[in-house]
Structure formats: C-alpha cells, structure tokens
Amino acid sequence: MTRSTPAQFLPGVGPSRALRLEKLGLRTAGDLLFCFPRNYEFPAPPERIDRIREGQPVSLVGTIVDAELVSRSPGKSVFGAVVQNDTGAVRILFFNQPFRAEQLTFDRQVMISGEPKLNGLRFEFVHPKVTFLDEEDEIESPKILPIYPLTDGVKQNEMRRIISAVVEQLAPDLTEVLPVELRDRATELVRDVGIDLRQPLPDIETAMKHIHWPPDKDQLRAARSRLAFQELLVMQLAMAIRRRRLTTNLQSSSMPSDPLLDARITNRFPFELTGDQVAAIKEISRDMARQFPMNRLLQGDVGSGKTVVAIYAMMLAVGHGNQAVLMAPTEVLARQHYQTLSRILDCSRVRVGLLCGSLGAAEKREVLRHTASGEIDLLVGTQALLHGLEFKSLGLCVIDEQHKFGVGQRVRLRGGGIDPHYLVMSATPIPRSVAMTIFGDTDLTTIKEKPPGRGVVKTYLGRDEWRRRWWEFVRGQLKEGRQAFVVAPRVSASQDTTASSDEASEDVSSVETIFDQLRDDVFAGYNVGLLHGRLSAEEKTQIMQQFSEGEIDVLVSTTVIEVGIDVPNATVMTIMGAERFGLAQLHQLRGRVSRGNHTGHVCVFTDGNQSPEENERLKVFESTNDGFELAEADFKMRGPGEIFSSKQSGMPSMMIADVIEDLDLLQAARTMAQEMVDEDPELESESLADLKKQLMRRYERQLDLSDVA
Ligand code: ADP
Ligand code: MG
C-alpha cells in the first residue's frame, strides 16, 4: 500500500464502497490517512451513585458486597448482586446466566455500565456491561473512539476499520518534516502560549496514529497540537519568507520625518491629533524612513480618523520630493478625499490631482501627463483607473477602504524605478488571527481611540407599528437643522454584504419607490435627494455636494454612501430592509451619523415577516457600538469562511487547524516562523529540506514565492 493506492484496493473497501467513499472526496489511501476524525467518543467517567438518575446510562465503580443465584426451574435462573462504593449501592441482575455467580464473587472490584431503573429504594441494572478492575490483564480502560465523517452506506464501524488499516500501514512511512530540535522548540512555544501539553509534541508517526486512535486525552491533545502547529507553521513560514523578500529585496526611497517637516505637516491640520493617530504616524514614519517598502495595514473603526494619518504620510512623501497616490473604492469617496486634501493644502506648493471615471477624455489625458511628468504631487483616484499608471517618482501608495483582502491581491504600482511604500486602510476590523493569516506579510496598526467630541450613536430596532413615530422623530431632527439618511438595500441575487464598490447590482427600483413615497408624504416640504449607483458620476457628485452643503435635507440612498462619506451635520439614519445587510456593512452605515458632535440616531426596519428583534444579527448590532466587538460576533455567527472565502480572500484552507479557534497555536507558529527565517532566510539548511518542499508545494503559487530571486 502507498498513499496513492486507490481506495477500492484497500482492505475492507472494494468497488462499491469505494464509490461511496468518493462522495466524501476519499479516493486514495492517502486521502483516508488524512481524513481526520471530526470528533471523538469519550468514555463516560464513573458516576457517583447518589447522582444517578433513572433511565440515564452511566458507568460506576464499586465492590461486590452481596451475591445470590436463584434457580427457579431448570434453565431458568436469576443472579443478583449488590455493588457498593462510598456514594451508595446498586443492584445488578442477570437472567439465565448462572456463570455470573462464579465471576461476580464477594469483594471483587468492578465497573458496570448500563441504564439504571428504580426498584423500590434502590437502582437496578439489568444485564449491565461489566469490567473487572482487579484482574491485571483485563484492566483495559475504555478507549476513546474516533468519529469520522460518513456517507450513505458506510457505517462508522466500517470507516474506523478501513482507516485504521491505512494508518497502520502508512503512518510509519510519513516524512518527518520537523526534526527533533524544531519539535522541542515548538513544544516550548506552544506551552508558552498557554496550551497544557503534558508531553512534548510527538513525531509525525505517533501524531498520526494518535489523532486517529488516541490512547488518552493528553496524547490526543499533543497529537492534534503537533499536526495543527505544523500546518500553521508552514503557512507562517511562507508568509515570513514572502514578507522578507517584499522588504529586503525591494528598493524604496527613505523618507524620514524630522521635527521641521513634522511641524509643517501637522500645522495644516485643523485639529489636534489623537494619541492613537500620533502613534500610528510614528509607526508609519519609521517604516517610511527605511529603504525598503512599508507594507502596513491601518485599521480603525469608522470615524476614527484614518484619513489624516494617510495625509500625513502622503505629505511626508511629497516633502521628500516624491509623489503619492491615494486610491479610493468609489468616485464619491475619491472626490471627497480630493476636497479634503485640497482644503488642507490650500495656498501650498503641493499640487493635487484627481483621476476618476467622470472626467472628460481631455482632462484625463492631462492628469495622466502631469502624473508622468511629476507636475502632480498627490494624485487621488478610483482604484480601477490607476492600473498601469505612470509616475515620475512614486514614493507612497495609500489604499483606502480596502475590502478585498488577501496577500498577492493588492495592486502593485511602480514608478520611477523605485518601489513605493504601501499603506492600506480598512474600517472593517478583523480579528487578530485573521490579520495574522491573510495579512501575514503585513504590519498592523490599529486605531482604537475616536477623536474627541464625537457624538454617541443610539441604535433602535424599529417595529413596524413605530414607523409613524420614527418619521416624526426624524422630522423633529430636521426642524432643528440636522440632516438625515434613508438607506435601502440592493436586492439583486448577486448582492453580497461585505463588498461595496460593486454598484451595478443595486435594485434601483426599491430606492426609487421609497424616495417617491417619502418625498410626497413623510418629508413633503423638505428637500429630498436620491443617490444610487446608476446615476452618472456627475449626478452623484452633484447630489453629494448638495447634501454636504446642506441644500438637501434627506438623502435616500443605496449603500453608495456606505464608504467613508463624511457629513457631520447628518445625524439620523433610517435603514430599510436591514435584514439584508451584513453586520460590517450596517456598522459602516452607522458610522455616517457619528461624525459631528450631535448625538446620532439609527433605526433599522426589516422588510420581511421577521421583526428586527427576531434577527440575531440586528440584535448584536443594537447591542454594541464597537466595531471590533461586532467583527468578532460576526465571525462567531458566520464563520470566517463566509466573510473571507478562501478563494476571494486568499485565506488558506486548513486541514486540521482552525485559524479562529487555534489563535494560540497560530501565535506560536508565527513566532517560530520568524525565528527560523531570521536565522535562515530561505530555509536552505539540509535539515529543513523536507519542510521547505512541503511549503513550496502548498504555497508557491498562492504566495508567488517562485518569481523572486
Ligand atoms: P475614517 O477613519 O472612518 O476614515 P475620517 O478620517 O474620515 O474617518 O475622520 C472622520 C472625521 O473625524 C473627519 O471629519 C475628520 O476631519 C475628523 N477628525 C479626524 N481626526 C480628528 C481629530 N484628531 N480631532 C478632531 N476631528 C478629527
Ligand atoms: Mg475613511
């Protein structure tokens, strides 16, 4: 037998069972070897007699204190005995098994398992399973049994037999990729992160045997830790190698900050920076002072003020005579950034350019020309337009509101023969484990603190019967001079709830209907605007402009407004069809009304039969305002798979490790990977050859590890 032996030729399989196994994706002996139990059956620990309950199967340990065989007539006997320990006594009964009288004699130690029935004052077990605890060779403590995934027509017992034969044969031939020194170091690191290992991480053969047939819980934990650790280590090594190559092999220009430059930049900001902003700027300046590219993710809740941090970095680049580019996912947002930059840089020598879809061909050409010649210092644009753009000397590339995650998926721009520094900003907080996985080659800065004077946002779950009252409340806010958003979902089938730049799939009719109703009824007498992705870019811009200047009181919109829009006077938001939005998206939307220093109000209504209180997601949304908490809750509810599907995001699929549950192991693996790569950057040592082979097999293509050096 080898790993490639087809399943049908394995002991106990045959052609018809092989077809059934194939439904589980199990075609070869190797597939079966790596078909790990999805769970285990653990033997129940002995119970206290005073705790047992009628009808609930238990095991208990005790001594035989009283035994009697009664023969009623030939061939008809009853054997009864009492089993006692210091928590009580029970009776056991066997019919027509006279031989029991010879086994179950006075003073013997036994464990019995079965279903208790109450008879008078005492529990009785009829034909329990008996294990003799005082007979040396019979003390086989009950085994932990593997539970495998099954398919029609293959029973658990058959599966156990088939896989057990495969493990027996193949486990000894597995390649050990972790030499013993590495296993020992791994054991230390795994213990350091708080995993209770009673023995060192085992070699691969033992680990494989024990994951299928664990002798006990401790050895199961050790085996599982070893296999999961290996999987995570291989991933983290690939990340570490890539990260190293992305930094040391590439040339960027060094753009350190200094007190004068720092003062010149910060003087232009209309407010004091928050502590977290200052800290983020410090990290970024340190990165940008180096001669290899920064690769940093800046994450912070909506409204935490990431933009100024990015502007600081861009001005640093310009201050050093380089260009910087800021990419936004939508035109509305690109224009807003352009305005912010133009305002801050008013009366300076820095030239800001804007590149987006709605520009005329001639204008576009001019921007391209000025970018290539270096006459534009700071370019703002939508992502789609920036591919293949030519720069004179591009020093920094900022990507705002990055929703498409994943290593190797980021746009790479080059200009003037140098590699720019990269700063990616995201308002979708991601748990640490995910950050370490999909952003394994990226440094992470998190802004937690919000700028001072931020209004709080109150969130309400709107019942249908409240609608009138809610609209009345909104009108009240308008009377006080505030502005309001009304958001309706896109409802086409291709809708996804996390991305937002895809405006083509909006259901325009639903917002249009809502718009018509509200304008003529609830908000008659107010200026109501309509915004959706099918409008031309000029129309969109015009409406946004009118809204931010206060000419429009109520903006009815699809999620175009989700990303980044900043209108501090807008304080009320109504979300219709809220059940169709993902948590991250709802939170993004809510972020739009917490910008000024007025209290924000968000009310969510649902379209379906389900009221908002019945919707788990909406309940969580109401319960917390903390984006990081929401992200964690979202992960727990939906699993990372749905949010970061591996295809779309580059989240590697794991065979045994679980990047959310195994955060501790992941941390240990990351530490070890870093140590190993520091010592041997390309893992060229002889003893690591097999590990390196495994790594390349798994990640060479995905992480683009082959094309560099
Ligand atoms: P986000 O992190 O969601 O991109 P922005 O960068 O758009 O947030 O900032 C949100 C708002 O907070 C903007 O109006 C910005 O001018 C303001 N802001 C940012 N930093 C500060 C600060 N330190 N003090 C006061 N207001 C700030
Ligand atoms: Mg932003």
Shape: globular
Let me know the largest β-sheet: 7 strands, mixed
Estimate the mean pLDDT confidence: 85
Determine the N-to-C terminus distance.
39 Å
The number of helical segments is 22
Helix content: 25-40%
Question: Beta-strand level of the residues, as a percent range?
Answer: 15-25%
Beta-strand segment tally: 22
Q: Strand order within the widest sheet? A: 6-7-4-3-2-5-8
Low-pLDDT stretches are 404-409, 491-506, 642-649
Radius of gyration: 33 Å
Attached small molecules: adenosine-5'-diphosphate, magnesium ion
What class, by secondary structure content?
A: alpha/beta
What do these coordinates show?
The protein has 22 helices and 22 strands. It has a seven-stranded mixed β-sheet with strand order 6-7-4-3-2-5-8, with no helix packed on it. The protein is of the alpha/beta class and 709 residues long. The model is unreliable at 404-409, 491-506 and 642-649 (pLDDT under 50). A hairpin with a 2-residue loop joins strand 2 and strand 3 (76-85). The protein is globular. Residues 271-274, 277, 300, 302-308, 427, 451, 564, 566, 595 line the site of adenosine-5'-diphosphate (ADP).
TL;DR of this structure?
This protein has 709 residues and is an alpha/beta fold.
